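2024-03-11 09:14:02 INFO queue: dequeued item Pseudouridine-5'-phosphate glycosidase, len=301
2024-03-11 09:14:02 INFO validating residues
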Amino acid sequence: MQKYLDIHPEIAAAIAAGKPVVALESTIISHGMPFPQNVETALKVEAEIRQRGAIPATMAIMDGKLKVGLTEAEITRLGKAGQDVIKCSRRDMPFVLAAGKMGATTVAGTMIMAALAGIRVFATGGIGGVHRGAETSFDISADLQELARTSVAVVCAGAKSILDIGLTREYLETQGVPVVGFGTDDLPAFYTRESGHAVDYRLDTPEDIAEALRSKWGMGLDGGVVVANPIPAEYAMPKSVIDGAIAQALQELEEQGVSGKASTPFLLARVAELTGGSSLDANIQLVLNNARLGADIAMAL
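2024-03-11 09:14:37 INFO prediction written
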């Protein structure tokens, strides 16, 4: 494994010393936002984690290595390359690595690399899930299967609101993945604080979450945990606005025949356009909010 892993020296030293480290994905840089907001946001997220006393570990596949911790130059390179970078989930990682190509890690890809490096907490925007219409398309994100098997806590603003949240909840339940609400009984839906779907457990402090994680993994119960952290109220979007934009974006997705791993970037970009960029602002704020909670949980753990 050491042949493939390239852990930044600062992160390697922190892991060895048992200091708090927070994993960060790179698909949000390449596919989630346009340049230069993607690079600015990635650097702000890292700064937020440092301010809380933890160390950020942004991950990507570059130069034939699984890179755990990127330099500012590497983050900029990823951000400028944008959608030309290959979006990497479990399926894609060995092929991108073997070809020496550049890959941005999804939630699943980041969880795999975090687990290999010995990092237990990961902060992101929203997890993937069961897409609307999945009963005929079978379009289900590999993130959900990864949450079932890989022991990393994923701090997110719930499931992306472009998804079928009810079916996503059912799938997670079947796979035995706990969904924890941080200070909320209702699963947040990315841009909005509520989805109308309950969480499994509500915990109100990072320490309580850390204690539950210790119990789960200490018992030998492998697999991840979804820590659902609502977007701050002042940045949440009106449900009617976001629902209207998503409905239109979904119609265009179908008309244009977009499918598979291209679906989420297409939908997020169209929703941003249809909301005059306000969904992008909300996206940035919720990621920063998750980074802060991720750092606090890593510190408590």
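2024-03-11 09:14:37 INFO annotate: The mean pLDDT is 94.
2024-03-11 09:14:38 INFO item closed
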